[in-house]
Design goal:
This protein is an alpha/beta fold. The chain folds into 2 domains: 102 residues, Double Stranded RNA Binding Domain; 107 residues, Sigma 54 modulation/S30EA ribosomal protein, C-terminal domain (SHC Adaptor Protein, 2-Layer Sandwich). The protein is built from 6 helices and 11 strands.
């Protein structure tokens, strides 16, 4: 497996490269078909007196979905350990789900009689959640109230991917996020799956309709 290590605001020493090669052996065992692992180390210095920190981002590329994990600590070696632990856990869980799928075939489907979604532990979002999303009234809580303002919002754009709810849940587990955006192949509606308590998941779908002004004009 090819390994790429880059530093942003910090130099990459030979010692760090050696430690990376030792640590990623766990990842290679869990993802034998992986082709490349990108390691990015970012050194951040804050203006408000916070202690500088190091963020290690891991991106695993191979035949299948891209797997990502990151961790932050004042010591880049500790951050590396945490990131490797996260990615190893994501790969292990994905591997267990594949084995379970072979032993117990499963698939998400709607029951014709009740209209309930069966075959996957996904619960539709409540009316309150849907209303909050539609009106933009979802409360946003900061993890650190004393973080320097103004807040920097990271934005990312991705190509739309059509998949089933079950495939979206699997992809969410691999990337280690609490939610995953996709387009439902059954409805062609933009949707998002998100993590609930325990191993339960939720799903929110948007119905694409013309704005009121366009509807009146037509």
């Amino acid at each position: 497996m090819e390994t790429s290590i880059v530093g942003v605001g910090v130099g990459i020493t030979d010692r760090f490269r050696t430690v990376v090669e030792e640590k990623i052996a766990r990842i290679q065992m869990l993802a034998s078909r992986a082709q490349r692992l990108d390691v990015k180390v970012t050194h951040r210095v804050y203006r408000n007196g916070h202690v500088p920190d190091e963020t290690v981002e891991l991106t695993l590329v191979g035949k299948g979905p891209v797997v990502r994990a990151e961790a932050t600590d004042g010591d880049k070696f500790v951050a590396l350990d945490l990131a490797v632990d996260k990615m190893s856990e994501q790969l292990r869980r994905a591997k267990e789900k594949r084995v379970d799928g072979r032993q117990h075939p499963r698939g998400a489907h709607f029951e014709k009689g009740s209209g309930a979604l069966e075959g996957i532990d996904v619960q539709p979002a409540s009316v309150d959640v849907l209303h909050a999303v539609a009106t933009g009234s979802v409360p946003v809580q900061s993890e650190e109230e004393d973080v320097y303002s103004p807040v920097v919002i990271r934005t990312k754009s991705f190509d739309a991917e059509w998949m089933t709810v079950e495939e979206a849940v699997d992809r969410m587990e691999l990337v280690g996020h609490d939610f995953f955006l996709f387009v439902d192949v059954r409805t062609d509606h933009p949707s998002v799956v998100y993590r609930r308590k325990g191993w339960d998941y939720g799903v929110i779908a948007l119905s694409t309709q013309a704005p009121p002004s366009e509807a009146l004009a037509s």
